[in-house]
Amino acid sequence: MSFKEPFPYEPPRQGQQELVGLIQKALEEERTLLVEAPSGFGKTVCVLSAFDNVARSHEEYKLIFLARTRREVARVIEEYMRVSQKLTSLKPISFLPRFELCLKRRDEQIEVERALFSAYCNHLVRNRICQYYERTHALPIAALTSIRRNLLEDLLATSRHNAFCPYEALLRLALNSNVLVMTYRYFFLSFRNYLVQLLSAVTTRLCYVIDEAHSLFSSLTSLFSVALSGSLLHEALAEVAGSAPPALAEQLGLLKANLGALAGELSKGQAITGEEAYMRLTSGLHHTLDRIYADLRATSLQRTLAASPLIMRSHASVGVLEALERLTSLREAGMLKDCITFVPSYKPEERSTILIKCIRPSLSLPSKPLWRGGKILLSATLGSPEVLRRLLDLEGPITYWALRDAKAAFPGLLCIVDAALTSRLRERSQANLREIGERLSLFVASIPGNTCLFFSSYAMMKAVKPHLLLPDNIVIMTEERQLSMEEAENMMRLFKANLASRALLMAVQNGRFSEGEDFPPDSIQGVAIVGLALPQPKRPLLLTLRALRPSLRLAYTHLFLRPAIEACLQCIGRALRAKSKKIVVYLLDKRFLSPQVSEHLPEWLLRDAKTISDKKGLQTMLSTHRNN
Question: Which of 138, 151, 276, 361 has the fewest CB atoms below 10 angstroms from its CB?
Answer without folding.
Answer: 138
